Amino acid sequence: MANEDLLWEHPLVSRLIRGGRRLRQDHRSRPWLLNAGLVVLVLLLFGLPDLLHRGDRDELVRVADFPVLGAVALQLGLTLPLLWRRSRPGAVFAAVMAVFLLQWSMDVWLHIDIALFIALYGVARRGGLRYLPWVCGVTVAAMVLVVLRVSTVASPFEAMFFLCSAATAAVALGLGVRIGQAHLGALRERAARLERERDQQNRLAAAAERARVAREMHDIIGHNLSVIIGLADGGAYAADVVPERSKEALQLIAGTSRQALGELRRMLGVLREEPGPQLQGPELSPQPGIADLEALCERVRVAGPEVAYRTAGDLDTLNEGVQLTVYRIAQESLTNALKHAGPDTRTFLTVVTEAGGIRIRVEDTGPADGRTVPARPGTGHTDAGPSGQGIAGMAERAALYGGTVTAGPRPGGGWAVETRLDLAPPPAVPAGRPGSEAS
After folding, report:
1. What is the distance in angstroms between the CA of the first residue and the CA of the last residue of the chain?
2. I want to staple 333 with a disulfide (CB 3.0 to 4.6 A). Which of 137, 211, 297, 417 is the partner?
3. Whose CA is closest to 335, among 297, 381, 378?
4. Which residues contact 26 (CB under 8 A, 6 or more apart)?
5. Dist. CA 229–CA 302, nearest whole Å
6. 243-252, pLDDT tens digit by residue?
7. What pLDDT is attached to residue 333?
8. Beta partners for 312?
């Protein structure tokens, strides 16, 4: 890895990479410029020497007895089609090959025949791959014609080896660049797709976080405000009958408000991007769990209702997520009981572990005076479409663990909300087909 890093950091390699990028940018903006530059370069390097040294040539390049205009025409016929080598590689190869065969049929040998290999490279680089074998076959046949012409001055085997090597190099270079560009394009597409997926995941995570924060805020504010309202109503009634109880109610309201404020600070604190010294200490206390249900029941009791709390099974071994879900569902159910049945009711909270799950049941006896209250939201099973925000929030929490929430009137009066959480692990998928036996 160190050697590779040094190679890419070499000044010469860096300049070559920057030059290649500039060439690609220029080709995108002015595609004709690079093709015209290639034609001019081939004419200067290979065509001009054939015209300047017509009388002093070796036996491998014969143009001395051929008219100058004819030689120029052949050179232009071999090079000008290269202007369209990127857009029409097959047609360019056909035109160059036609001029090449015409030239050698007249026994004219030119250095500028290098244009045939450039056209062959263009077919391998951008042409249809299904036509490439035919193009290679035509090229080999043309090379045989060349070998027959030069056999009087050179070994046929050496000439064939040189020509076929040059053709193979052109095809291999074209295919290599083509595969590299395809691989680079696939990497760019994959990077763009991963970026889109990342943005989608970020949006989904943000939406899930907003929903989670909304549930937490609803549970915190709804529960504590319901307790405060109950205490305020009780304190207002006690102010005329038992004045000392109104002072106690005010103190309880202050304590409940401080607790709600602390919970809100903890909830809002986790939304800060950069943790600071102000986030240390009690503000980052753990989320409530099953162990805090007794304190929850006590806060509801001070608002008036009688709360009986019972548990069964091993609840302390549950993970923090499950415990938080149980706590919030019990909190919402007790809040609804206080809100709809009033402070003069009896409430029963039961948290029981069952086979593969947990059952949370909260029921109340209704108002003590026996008066009827409006139908509570969320009547029936949650699949029936509850309209209450509290029941809907409990259903969302229960759905995270494959659970259900059922709410409805209780026999003998009152209301009952029962939640079941499914904690059983998913069934294992068999490795082989059903009924297959290991050999």
Report:
1. 46
2. 417
3. 297
4. 33, 34
5. 12
6. 766 767 777 7
7. 87
8. 352
